[in-house]
Design goal:
With 217 residues, the protein is an alpha/beta fold. It is built from 5 helices and 10 strands; from the N terminus they run H-E-E-E-E-E-H-E-E-H-E-E-E-H-H.
Length: 217
């Protein structure tokens, strides 16, 4: 998504996660409800300040008075160090039944092969995660916290570290294409160089060496 469109969507009023618009992509959102800490999901391989950690994806049952069926949403509450995850989850669970979250609605493409086991994943996968929980959720996740500029340092030091960058994080397609084209050109040049390089002459056989020695004598 182009930066201008991203900023336009970000400038729209925040919506209630229980009553989302048709296109919630990269819009501000708030969600209030009961977190299901028994089914918090961990996305592995996340690093912060060179420290290994996990991203916590929390199912939240939203407050929808008068609705025939409760609505659910997934909330990315942030990064925690791997060895502190269990203690942090216990602490967060003890903070109260009803919680409020505010951030940005970020879309994700489902990767059905992303699951490692019932609570650990290689990537964020909303529909697949929800299927494990037996609920339905949108194809976007509430990324909790405040927006940060591209180069702004992360000041939060108390896990879970929440927040999001206030610019799209994808690289332009043209840059990807140029990178792969350059790599292919380099490999072709190396192959041609090896193909046309002159091999060294083979060593003389032993018999030829003896004949040269006899003639010299």
């Amino acid at each position: 998504m182009e930066r201008l469109l991203f900023e336009e969507r970000l400038a729209l009023p925040a919506f209630d996660a229980a009553y989302p618009p048709t296109d919630a992509t990269f819009r501000r959102v708030h969600a209030a409800g009961a977190p299901d800490w028994d089914h918090v999901q961990r996305v592995l391989g996340r690093y912060m300040w060179s420290q290994p950690g996990v991203q916590l994806i929390l199912p939240v049952q939203l407050e929808t008075p008068g609705e025939p069926r409760p609505a659910w949403v997934l909330v990315d509450i942030g990064w925690v160090p791997t060895d502190e995850a269990d203690a942090i989850i216990r602490r967060e669970r003890a903070a109260g039944v009803i919680r409020s979250y505010a951030g940005i609605a970020r879309p994700f493409t489902d990767e059905l092969s992303a699951r490692i086991d019932v609570a650990r994943w290689r990537s964020v996968s909303p529909a697949a995660m929800a299927a494990e929980l037996g609920v339905q959720v949108p194809q976007w996740v509430v990324v909790d916290g405040e927006g940060l500029d591209d180069q702004a340092p992360i000041l939060d030091r108390v896990p879970p570290i929440s927040g999001w960058r206030s610019a799209p994080s994808q690289r332009p397609h043209g840059e990807y294409a140029f990178t792969w084209f350059s790599l292919g050109l380099t490999l072709a040049a190396v192959w041609l160089s090896l193909s046309f390089s002159k091999p060294p002459p083979p060593p003389a056989p032993d018999g030829g060496a003896r004949n040269r020695l006899s003639s010299a004598g």
